């Protein structure tokens, strides 16, 4: 295959995977899949309740409570959020980072639905570890929702004027397009491998502690955020070719640190996990706020 043919094929693939048409089709498919999988999950729980289906030694909370069935459609929705993250990468770094925050928040909300089926109502609420974790997750979700709102609000304030597309800016957009195009098949293969590996381990293992909620929550997303860190670092290095602005370099570096903190949260337990997520989003928001102040200062100095 010649270089020109390869380049043409890459461009066609880029236009296809990052097109509005595909995005709209995926949205419809994800909604239908979420509804169908939710129904299947509920049906499995019903069959177990009527002793028609037996999972043997496995007694995980994902199959003993109808409330925990909500975990399944949320997992499907997260797939679409991952695609949106890649979709917005060439368009805006800040929206791309914001999508990372949305994904980790949805993972936390998904965990809350699981925890709802495992609550122990007691007068000594704050003496039960599971109930304390549930309370903390609820508070953290509200905090994250507010922080993400502020993040997008600060981002919109910074778009007073459209940035003039210089040759360096155009080159940087091409680089982001290339990364986004490569990310789509990479993420698809990673998802298939992660789910397949987990399914095989679960079926073949007699130790059902391996199917804990922490293990289920880290399926795909632990490795996914590792890939994002690599992409973020590469984007940071390529950004040096586009600009020498200290504020933008620090902003992009701060976003990398924020992604690393999110990645670290997967290896942390309970309270530390939740705290790391909130700290990661708070750090990204603070970095963007300071960057905006630099942006305003530079504008006032240049007028």
Structure, explained:
With 303 residues, the protein is mainly α. It has one domain. Helix content is 78%, strand content 0%. It has 10 helices and no strands. Helix 4 runs antiparallel to helix 5 and helix 6 packs antiparallel against helix 8 (221-242). The chain is globular. It starts with a helix and ends with a helix. The relative contact order is 0.10. The model has no long low-confidence stretch (mean pLDDT 83).
- Report the mean per-residue pLDDT as an integer: 83
Strand residue content: under 5%
> Biggest β-sheet, characterized?
none
For the record, the count of structural domains works out to 1
Helix content: over 70%
**Helix-strand pattern:** HHHHHHHHHH
Q: What structural category do the secondary elements indicate?
A: mainly alpha
What is the global morphology? globular
Rg over CA atoms: 22 Å
Quaternary organisation of the protein chains: single chain
Put simply, the count of helices is: 10
- Distance from N terminus to C terminus (CA atoms, Å) equals 53 Å
Total beta-strand segments? 0
Report the uncertain regions. Answer: none
